[in-house]
Amino acid sequence: MALDVPLARLFDYAVPEGLNVRVGDRVTVQFGTRQQLGVVMETDIESELPASRLKPLVAVREDAPALPPEWLELMRFLSSYYQRPLGETVIGSLPPRLRSVRALPKKALQRAQESSALRFVPNHLPTRDQTLAVERIAASAGTFSAFLLHGVTGSGKTEVYLHAIAKVLARGAQALVLVPEISLTPQLEARFRAAFPHTRLALLHSGLEDVARTSAWLDAARGDAGIVLGTRLAVLAPLPGLALVVVDEEHDTSFKQQEGLRYSARDAAVYRAKLARCPVLLGTATPSLETWHNWQGRRYERLELAERASPGARLPAVRTLDLRQGAHEQGIAEEVLQGISNRLARSEQSLVFINRRGYAPVLSCEACGWAAGCARCSARLVLHAPDRQARNRSGSLRCHHCGAEAPVPRACPTCGNVDLKPVGRGTQRVEETLAARFPQARIVRIDRDSARRRGDLNRVLESIHRGEADILVGTQLLAKGHDFPGLTLVAVLNADTALLSTDYRAPERLFAVLAQVSGRAGRREQPGEVIVQTRYPAHPLFAALARNDFAGFAEGQLADRRSAGFPPFVFEAALRAEARKLEDALRFLRAAAGAVARPDEVSVFDPVAHVVTRRADFERAQLLMQSPSRTALQQFLAALSDQLFASAPRQIRWHLDVDPIEFD
Predict the structure, then answer these.
(1) pLDDT > 90: what percent of the chain?
(2) Which domains does the chain have, with CATH numbers?
């Protein structure tokens, strides 16, 4: 039985006579001096403990449906593949209120009375490519099939989702739709509710209050919700009638959980579809290289949307601007500023994209070289200027790693110099520069600082759609999924950072974000233009972007990965450790490397410190493991995990990250 206790282990309990208990039931049990919520994983087993020592179950919870066998099988897969205890995986996958022995809120238990008749209201008639895609998906109903829906930005991937879901709902079945960010759920929810006004839709993400999340989970588990829409945690909801899984923006790294059970929701979605014997649809304009490789290996089928769906809309013209030549103002080239001026004269919108929030990434003293650093992390503090949008009335220094905050010093703490300089630029500084250049323009900045409160982002996006903004300044929050009809110019600042990264995934991520943000321009009749500022205009990545040649870019990246021995040609896992002293973390990793026998197919590299070594007062290090055989790596990890859970010192915080995507 899985219990909500430290490490959430499995425990044996006796079933009182007359109590009907099934696998998947939520039950109340006595654990020590307290009652706890548990989930029955097996029945009719012989315990290693004598019957006299087994405590009886207290009660079977009947306020929610029993967890179905397919869901429990998903939990077993996630537990074994990502090397976390099964009990922790099961309990952690339930909403907080369903882990508690407290009665569920009455409001969450109320079932809405909605029409069972299907009414589908499409936005427009599908294009030929959209129709072919929908027909192919529908033809695979009742069998597991993995589809890559590869469509350029603005090609109408959402319309394909809607028509495919309509066919599922017509059979009385359920559809699961995953999006990478909470910020993308409001507009997609609105599209789905407009298209299916009589269908129960369950919304699931971590930003919901407990009652709303519990209610949505119950709607999904009872089969009342025809559509379940949410972020990565939605993939963990039981769906008894699951007949279609959709993963929108499948390439997005937000689908990977970075704490606790470190699962990939995209990969879990594929496995869920396999268990449910239904199609899974992975939609994107820039597929992850793993997905592209799976298509090349014929494990996935590719459905292409090569043109924009809106009549007269064309992909924007993309060109680079060499920062080594010409004048610029606070990092913005004069040619970009002139392009914005031209759009203002034509009442069109412009987007200035810089993937760095705050005012400046560094506050420094030119006299002695001091730079503001975080006392808890080996990282610089980011300067945030006074900001009414974020309700911050005085400037501050913030750590984007641990969240620490400090006031801006009046003078250098080392030499006393009062002339401290901000170095570099973030969204706030760009906004300030544009406001000085275009004082009459309506400038809207969108980043995690300006959209902190629930509903802020949705309200701002609605105002942009109404034409109440002339210039947008934003980070990745604006890069994907949004449709701004009046936007015709996108200017990209600070694109070169990723080109200099030591992370082998950096070029893939840069291409994806540039393609996504470029896709915001020219989505209607007005032609769109994208200007990328760079000091490396001849880089092949920019040439592929200008040609809209994802296939060529992917082939080059895959060739590099194959020769270097990187995924998807090998499988990886990282053992990460945190301790008060770096040497303690490294010593633990060195011992772990030899703790169990290593198969010949598995390579274990020397432990190294993280790039950001200290975070929140803990020193961090990691041990990388690779193998061309997934099975060999999994067997090694299982043995290593068992050993570490049994013998790891308590002063070391550690975890295994299977298929890691970050190495900071």
Answers:
(1) 77
(2) 2-104 (3.40.1440.60), 109-305 (3.40.50.300), 317-551 (3.40.50.300), 571-658 (3.30.70)
